[in-house]
Amino acid sequence: MSKSEKNIYKEVEKALDEVRPFLKADGGGVELVDIVDNVVKVRLTGSCSDCSISIQTLKNGIEKSVKNAIPLITKVIAVD
Which of 15, 20, 27, 65 could bond 47 through an S-S bridge, CB–CB 3.0 to 4.6 Å? Predict the structure, then answer.
């Protein structure tokens, strides 16, 4: 992994840290799985893993935070 890739991972983790308290308040969480071709792959955990509005949380909360912090990220997707 190159230095710039490591920096992107760090920046994504920082962006995820911004939303984690809100997820945790509802019993959920998010883990960074990978970044491939400017697409961030995350795993929703706890109550977020089977919540009926997890897609909204993913797009309106997590993706928005990550894309605001790292504009080269094109999208954030959830994986199992």
Answer: 27
